[in-house]
Amino acid sequence: MRPYPVCTNGRLLNYQFEQESSLFSMTWQEDGLTDAPTMVFVPDVKRLSIQELPFEAHINKLEGTEHGWLVIQPLGKQKQRSISISLNERLMK
Q1: Which of 20, 44, 55, 93 has the fewest C-beta atoms under 10 angstroms from its C-beta?
Q2: Residue 90: which residues within 8 A CB-CB, separation 6 or more?
Q3: How far apart are CA 33 and CA 56, in angstroms?
């Protein structure tokens, strides 16, 4: 199982999952017009550390599973944003 974008505030520019390194990367252009969050499905949320994120976010865990969503709060302005998640380590960027 791999991480993937569920919904994006703005326009999704790209995302990829490198199976060999277990690295998920995503870039989006936030539109600044809504207060809707960007959400990424994460198959093992216990590997994430919210304290290491460079922006406001939280984790919504799916009850009875290790799965969940990384919920990234919008900035309220137009800006290109990116995130990288390693499933072998903790959140990287």
Answers
A1: 20
A2: 47, 48, 49, 52
A3: 18
Per-residue model confidence as pLDDT tens digits over 67-79? 999 999 999 999 9
Which residue type is seen at 22? S
- With a CB cutoff of 8 Å and minimum separation 6, the contacts of 87 are 2, 3, 22, 23, 24, 43, 44, 47
Distance of alpha carbon 82 from alpha carbon 26, whole angstroms: 5
Using CA atoms, how far residue 80 sits from 8, 29, 74, in Å, is: 12, 4, 11
Beta bridge partners of 81: 28
Which residue from 76, 17, 14 is spatially nearest to 41, judged by alpha carbons? 17
Is the separation of the CB atoms in 42 and 67 below 8 Å?
A: yes
pLDDT digits over 3-41, tens only? 999 999 999 999 999 988 878 899 999 998 899 999 999
Residues 6+ apart with CB under 8 A from 13: 27, 28, 29, 80
